[in-house]
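Before surveying the methods themselves, let us examine one representative protein, pairing a chain with its fold in token form.
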Amino acid sequence: MSIALLLALSAWLVISELYQAGVFRKFSGKRQPVTPADKLAETQSVASHPAIKTVTPQAQIGALLTQLINALIQRQLLPADPSLTHRQLVSHFQQQARQADSAFSRLVRQAEPLLYGHRPVDADLVGNYRREVHALLGNLRS
């Protein structure tokens, strides 16, 4: 009796840990698309809204990078997979575009130290980054 109870408890513990790790999500069909059209429109409007200038420069850079990534996902140049890092997205984009060094990879390389390295960001840097993102978005639309 105690062995059966111990086995049942062990099985429950293993299954609950696997469930928390998300192993069963891919089998249950509960995965939602990462960027539905309304989320994309919301992200684009947030990054270009005048109130964006009231947040920290790092947050502005992050919003611009998110806007760019969502635009590339919408054009099916990047996969809509939330588990991919920026570097993995760059690698995927380089394979799709067959370019070793693209404007997207340069923008990611510029943004990562600012977002994650706690480097100082001034208004000029944000302005330049905004212009480069909008230029790339303009190229994608044409």
Confidence is low (pLDDT under 50) at residues 34-46. The CA atoms of residues 57 and 123 lie 7 Å apart.
